[in-house]
User: What shape does this take?
Amino acid sequence: MRKTFLCLMVLTVACLISISVAASSSPTASTSGEQQAAAAPASATEVKVGLGIENLDVTGASDSFNIAPDTKVYGWARVRDVAADSAVSIIFKKGDKEVYKKEVTIPSVPYRINAYRTFRSWDAGEWTLSIVGPGAKELASTTFKVEITK
Assistant: This one.
């Protein structure tokens, strides 16, 4: 019984090794691996902009908003690439001008943060939402356009 079990284990390991060697020597496998590495984002932080927050996630996410004056637009992020107890800022910018900034201490990783800004009739234009971590390092950002209807 022991010899049978041992033979099955050796055979299983040999099969797994041959499969992994064949997959790594395949030209299509290495090409797709290189493509995946090239397509991987520089940061693990996700960032979105939307019209609300529900169940810890953004709702109405878009990169363009046609809204009435006095509407709140929410910035949302899932921060993954900072240490626990780090300070992270969520920043709304219009052009190069910082318009609103909220600093949050991240108690654990991953952690979701959000902030909102109420857009007035004069706030139409191109905006950027940036997530900035320790050392003023930008973790992620997204741009969005706001049009105000009257």
Remarks:
- Confidence is low (pLDDT under 50) at residues 21-41.
